[in-house]
Amino acid sequence: IMSDKGKANQPINKLTTRLMPVSQAVCWYSIVNSQKAEDPTTAAFDFVKLASAFFCAWALYNKFLGGMPKELGHISMGLTCAAATFRSKKATVAGIGVVLLNFFLPIVAFNVILMPARKLALMAKKNQTTDGIVWAWVFKGYMISSCFLWGY
User: Fold this and answer.
1) Is the pLDDT of residue 5 over 70?
2) CA 83, 35, 141: angle at the middle one, nearest 5?
3) Please, are residues 18 and 28 in contact by the beta-carbon 8 Å criterion?
4) In whole angstroms, what is the distance from residue 138 CA to residue 151 CA?
5) What is the Cα–Cα distance from 16 to 21, expressed in whole angstroms?
6) Residue 65 phi/psi, 5° resolution?
7) Maximum CA extent, the chain
8) Mind listing the pLDDT tens digit for each residue in 125-137?
9) Burial label, 54 (beta-carbon count in 10 A; 0-12, 13-18, 19+)
10) How far apart are CA 152 and CA 11, in angstroms?
């Protein structure tokens, strides 16, 4: 979650800030609907494949275009996507486990949920403007939702 840019008040990407809650809403909607499918197992693999492909692409964007060269989410999301594509239950579960750790560990290690939003914005984005604080609150919600989403 640490920003790689050293300058103060690094601009907040408003598109990706909005993408966090929107992506979670779409994922939760998809999970609910996948349980209504004729073949819930196939629907679950399809959901994991598409969701992890999307989040892999997002991580690659962050790494190469979004100023976060230390981003590694594309690895766990990419492996999870491949496992779900090949319908490997064990590999998919293992991939989801790694994805869960990617979301859960920063929550614990950095105490993200209890950390004041201003402090999180400063630590992660070097930005304490209103945009930075809004980003921090959205990020907290995204991290919590992601833990439940991938653990579901």
Assistant:
1) no
2) 75
3) no
4) 20
5) 9
6) -120, -20
7) 52
8) 999 999 999 999 9
9) middle
10) 34
